[in-house]
Each structure stands twice: as C-alpha cells, then as structure tokens.
Amino acid sequence: MINGTSDKRKAIGFLLKTGVILSCFFGIALHLITDTSGFMSRIFLAFTIQSNMWIAGICLIHLLISLLLKNFKIPGWLHIIKFMFTVSILLTYIVFAVLLTPLMEWSYLTSLSNILLHTVTAVLATLDFIADGYVYVIKKRMLYLQSLIMPLLYSIFFFVYYEITNQMPVPYFFMDFKKYGWFNISSFGIGVIYWMVILCAVLILMSHTILKLKKKSSMSKRTVMFTAIVMLLASISFSIINLAV
C-alpha cells in the first residue's frame, strides 16, 4: 500500500513538473513569436519571465534526479530552492492578477502566452509543491525569510537598471521610485517603500499558506484540487473584472 501511494505520488509529481516546464517553454516561445512591443517587450528583464524560468529550471533538476538517479535522495537545499522559486512564481501570479490586469489589453489577457506564463505555470508549480511528500525540518521563520530572497534580488536589479538607464526594465508602476518617490504619500499614489513592505507581507503570507496547504495535502487529496480551482477562478475573475471596467 505504501509503495503504491509512493509510486502514485511520483507519477503525479512527474506530470506536474513536466507541465511546469512545458508551460514556461511554450509561454515564452509564443510571446517571442507573437509580441514584440508593449508591456512585455523587454521580455527577459521581466520578473514574470525570470520567475517562470527559475521554477521550470528547478523542476527540471528535480525531474532529472528522480529519473536518472533513482537511488539518490534529493538534498534538502534543492527543496528549499524549489520552495523559494514556488513563492516567486506565486508572486508573479498574484501581482499580475491584482495590480497589472487592469492595465492590460483584453487581447493580451486572453492570449495563450499570458495564460501560460501568469496562470498555468503558477498553478502547476503550486500543486507540485503541496503534493510533494518532502517534509521541511527547518523553522518556518527561516523559510519565510528565504521566500523573500529572489524578489528582493530582482528588486535590486530593477532599481539599479532604472537608475543607470533612466528606463524601467518593465513598467511596474509600483516600483517607479522616480515618479512616486520612496516614502511619498499623495493623491497620485504611494512611495515604492510602502509597496515593497506590502509585497514582502504578501510573500510571507503566501509562504505560510502553501506550507499549510502542503501539510493538509498529506491528509486530503481535496486540498490539492481545491487549491487549483481557487487559483483558476481568481485569475478568471480578475480578467472579467478588467473587461467590465
């Protein structure tokens, strides 16, 4: 019975990881083929693309180890990296859905490349994470801090690039310190520091949530299905709201 459950878990993990890799690959490929201007014109400078590539890369590494080194136990640090990248792709999903969807054209929102890069990869990566049988032994507070690493590194890159070139890598309005300042609060908007605090809080909340879902998924298969349904419905809802507005 235990072997059967383990084999089933491995099969599900294989399918989900493969899905993440394919979603990332085809999402980027389709965008390069169909779109050369607008929001994603400097595609590889966007957090969306980088977070897609990070999670696809770590899924590929986990997949290859499982397939080629069957008796080799994946080390804990690779699981931590996977956790960090999972949180990053979730940030891509949430920020796009909540903050950027209202700024997008309907033609882009309904494009396959957008659906893959902003929704499908995130959903599959999240399901793969919570369905994985690995149990973290380090303190949650350390995991929460580790979840901040990749977004903060990207933020440093973004700010340095913007300062040197006087052009944002991609038009993330909430990171435009030259327009909104760092600590300003006005009718035009709030400063970048406040956005950073909000996003860090969101990252920690997401970290706590997926770790809790991961724990529950070992007791209930419905947790995995519920997570997928909620994420898909949320993405669709924000797109419909954007269309109505």
Strand order of the largest sheet: 1-2
Number of helices: 10
Number of DSSP strands? 2
Calculate the mean pLDDT score and round it. 85
Structural class: mainly alpha
Overall geometry comes to globular
What is the helix content?
over 70%
- Main sheet makeup: 2 strands, antiparallel
Kindly estimate the percentage of residues that lie in beta strands according to DSSP.
under 5%
Total count of domains:
1
Could you give the distance between the termini?
Answer: 53 Å
- Series of secondary-structure elements, N-terminal to C-terminal: HHHHHHHHEEHH
Radius of gyration of CA atoms, rounded to a whole number: 19 Å
- Poorly predicted runs of 5 or more residues: none
Overview of this protein structure:
The chain has 245 residues and is an all-alpha fold. It has one domain (2-244). The protein contains 10 helices and 2 strands; from the N terminus they run ααααααααββαα. The chain has helices at 2-34, 47-68, 76-100, 106-109, 112-131, 140-147, 149-165, 177-180, 192-217, 222-244, and strands spanning 185-186, 189-190. It has a two-stranded antiparallel ribbon with strand order 1-2. The longest helix is centred in the N-terminal third of the chain and has 33 residues, at 2-34. The protein starts with a helix and ends with a helix. The mean pLDDT is 85.
